[in-house]
Amino acid sequence: MYSPGTYGRRRWRSKGRERNIIASLLSVVVIILLCTSLSQPRWFSLKGGGCDHSYIALYDFFYIGSFEYRSDIEKSTIDTIYHTMDETMNNCVTSQVVILLRLMIAFLLLATLASALAFCLDIIGSTHVVLRILRRNAVGSIHTVVFCVTVIGLSYLSATLMQQQQEATKQIRISKAEVKFDVGFYMVTAAGAVGILATAANLFRRYAHNADTSNHQLLEDFDGLETFSIGYPSRVEVSPIEIMPPPPPYTP
């Protein structure tokens, strides 16, 4: 049987959610940029040094590799060789650089998880107290931005150490060794910028006052009481005169 209380309750549940479509779409863009940066083969570009690779990617350091050191008597130098699962890098990275690159991978994964959390909170729009606080204060997006900034800082430190290694191992002493950021780095930078927009989309959104929520809840409870009314007809077009008791019989 149709019940006005049930209809009011369903309508309030559908309206009571606080979905943020704009912030959720921005979170999707952040996730795409972060995942693409992890699979990007060009993170650092190297030129003029002793490295036999023109580009360094992060996915080469997902797995545990091994170092090998060979001394060159003629040049009075020691070559640092790093063996990955698929290839060998000669004078490209050091043990400190490898640690930094793996930290970058870890923070990128954390940023992806934080952005996925922000997306779920924005698309579901639950009004539960804890979830509402996390969403309105953009906790997921803020952590995403912090992790992206951390990756940018680690990238700068890694590039500095690689620059020093390239200067020490370059073949021609008068040449200039260069280590520059490439596509993967700029993708993370773009992801951090979009994460700031997602944060603003939550922090600067205006929500209804809590008193309005309480009033709606009281109206919902009142509608629910109508379901348990006894003797109240379900037809809304019934006149009040029709539900009045009949008059007593006429006596002369």
Account of the protein in words:
It is built from seven helices and six strands. The chain is mostly helical and 252 residues long.
Number of domains: 1
Mean pLDDT reading: 79
CATH hierarchy: architecture: Up-down Bundle
How is the largest sheet built, in terms of strand order? 2-1-6
Q: CATH class, please?
A: Mainly Alpha
Give the strand content.
5-15%
Record field, number of beta strands: 6
Order of helices and strands: HHEEEEEHHHEHH
Task: Enumerate how many helices there are, as a single number.
Answer: 7
What is the approximate shape? elongated
Task: State the low-pLDDT regions, or none.
Answer: 4-9, 210-235
Based on secondary structure, the structural category is mainly alpha
Biggest β-sheet description: 3 strands, antiparallel
Q: How large is the radius of gyration? A: 32 Å
Oligomer: single chain
- CATH level-3 fold name: Butyryl-CoA Dehydrogenase, subunit A, domain 3
Spatial gap, N to C terminus: 46 Å
Fraction of helical residues: 40-55%
